[in-house]
Amino acid sequence: MSRLADADPECRQQRDTGVPVETVIIPNMRDIGDFSVRRVLPAPERRAVGPFVFFDHMGPTTFAPGNGLDIRPHPHIGLSTLTYLYEGSILHRDSLGYKQQITPGAVNWMTAGRGIVHSERSGERVREQGQTLMGLQVWVALPKALEQCAAQFMHYSVSSLPELEADGARIRVVAGECFGVHARLETHSPLFYADISIAPSGRVKIAADYTERAIYLMAGTIEVDGATFTERRMVVLKPSAEIIVHSATGASFVVLGGEPLDGPRHLWWNFVASDRELIEQAKSDWRDGKFGHVPGDHDFIPLPES
């Protein structure tokens, strides 16, 4: 049993009762300047869930008037990022020339491929007024055959995301195919991502359509086969186990997963690759200014020393 599992009674409970749960991950807190995140993946007990290799719960952080989010331009390779907010807004700019504000319920989907640079900041009006910011950002490792593809950016509005309701649950399908619905967001590998809210005494069935699946609980509590799980936990499900999620109090969570990666991935800073040489090349390219620039945002984050 892992160190985190030893520390969490939920982990002991699910292992002792035979619940169809593989493990429970407790996020680690990380401070990024004036902004806090809960780092869920990668974790000691689980490096990835399907092709999802990175999972951050951002905030909630309240910025006073005159202050805001300032993540300076930085590079990525070998991945797609999915940004989904619950509160506040973020202004995305990238080296392809896109400038897009994302607000709660909408989706930014950026594919880095062989290389992209982007920044994430508070817009001018939002900065003047101040805001509370909370959301999720996840990284999806690209299949080996597409690691060197051209970079792309897509934005999906709230109205473009399919929704369904049943048994006290509201399900918004963000990416991939699940719950009998296919999202507009086209992915590069078999995966799914859905945002779910359950009313008190509601329920939802999570089918075993994909080999690897997980639940991340944003708020409230849920019950799975008699075991209770609390907010800010990732519950990794066992393969082939169809489960029913109940909630006596009501809850908000995401479900995500997909098929296993086509081989291990190396993660270093903002780079993901199947070959360490690709990461070394990306380090050199960023150090030498070969990644390109974000129009209108001339600052940048230097390469880490280690």
UniProtKB/TrEMBL annotation:
Q: Where is the Pirin N-terminal domain positioned along the sequence? A: 35-140
Q: Name one Pfam family in it.
A: Pirin_C
Residues in domain Pirin C-terminal? 193-292
Stored InterPro entries: Pirin, Pirin_C_dom, Pirin_N_dom, RmlC-like_jellyroll, RmlC_Cupin_sf
Highest taxon of the lineage: Bacteria
Q: Which Gene3D superfamilies does this chain map to?
A: Jelly Rolls
The entry's family comment says:
Belongs to the pirin family.
The name of this protein is: Pirin family protein
Origin species, per record, is Gilvimarinus japonicus
